[in-house]
Write a structure and sequence with these properties.
Shape: globular
Oligomer: single chain
Radius of gyration: 18 Å
Number of strands: 13
Length: 308
């Protein structure tokens, strides 16, 4: 496989303003697989879930031609109740209780061996969303060894970035991957800076390529001596921004791994996020028409970059 995605698997139920309810919405790192699938055919999803995984996720991955390696050590995939308030704020809670949530989190840890069947000389990149406390973060060297020609992208979890006692270890782990990602709010807390330019300076000092997400403003790719910024796509069509960070970061791996340059990298990532935000859950199907639209939007963003 050319691209592998590893991360968290969950289901979301939404209670929306006005009494509308949505149930069984796919969540977690499926957004990352969907982002890559919008542009490339060869994608595998690596994860851990409940025995009910195939019931909820099977049709999506089958319809999109995404290979799957998911272990199922618990009976139910983690499910979260998402409540959106009139002011735009939201709350979430695990419907199976804290004890089950902790048990599932403990048992549903990714392992490097799950990636092995899909890795080889043709593998261009692996995206992993994982916390410092997880096993896979200590297996980054194993993942890199499985793909001698590929790149490893780490999306750092919010909890690690917001906890000062973990910052030294985060910086150490960044040096073991090829590229990493965080968002503006996370970076402000991590570096203790409030101004955008100050945060960008701190990211540059790390010396690793970084896909830096700035929400509805857009995104940056810091690579070598270049800092590429492009505005967000389709904010006026946004229905739900959940998963846009995962989606765009995984897509940015394509540009970085294939040497497309930071501007095209950001353009593709922003377009994927725009598609993702059009509905609840991941973009449903990577059709030829969807890909045509994505390509057009990417080219429009690059023309914008050339004009400014």
């Amino acid at each position: 496989m050319e691209y592998l995605v590893g991360g968290y698997t969950m289901l979301n139920d939404f209670d929306l303003p006005g009494g509308k309810q949505l149930r069984d919405v796919l969540g977690g790192s499926v957004f990352s697989a969907a982002g890559i699938r919008l542009w490339r055919d060869s994608v595998a999803y690596i994860g851990a879930a409940g025995e009910d995984f195939d019931r909820f996720y099977g049709p999506y991955f089958e319809n999109n031609g995404i290979a799957v390696s998911v272990k199922k050590p618990v009976d139910r995939t983690l499910r979260y109740q998402m409540k959106y308030n009139d002011d735009g704020s939201w709350e979430e809670s695990c419907q199976y209780g804290l004890e089950y949530e902790q048990k599932a989190a403990r048992l549903c840890l990714l392992e490097a061996g799950q990636f092995a069947p899909y890795c080889g000389e043709d593998t261009k990149g692996i995206y992993v969303e994982a916390a410092l406390s997880t096993r896979i973060v200590n297996q980054f060297s194993e993942l890199k060894a499985m793909m001698p020609n590929g790149k490893l992208m780490w999306e750092i979890t919010t909890g690690d970035l917001l906890t000062p006692s973990r910052h030294t270890q985060v910086l150490e782990k960044i040096q073991t991957v090829d590229a990493f990602s965080m968002n503006f709010n996370e970076a402000k807390a991590f570096f203790g800076k409030q101004e955008l330019e100050e945060v960008l300076d701190e990211l540059r000092k790390i010396g690793k390529p970084c896909f830096f997400r700035a929400g509805e403003r857009g995104a940056y790719m810091l690579q070598g001596s270049e800092t590429a910024f492009l505005p967000a796509v389709g904010t006026e069509e946004s229905v739900d921004p959940t998963g846009c960070g995962n989606c765009s970061t995984a897509t940015a791996l394509i540009g970085y791994a294939e040497g497309l340059g930071p501007w095209e990298t950001v353009a593709m990532a922003n377009v994927s996020a725009g598609f993702n935000a059009r509905q609840y859950g991941p973009w449903p199907l990577a059709t030829p028409e969807a890909r045509r639209q994505a390509q057009q939007q990417k080219e429009a963003l690059l023309r914008h970059a050339a004009a400014v």
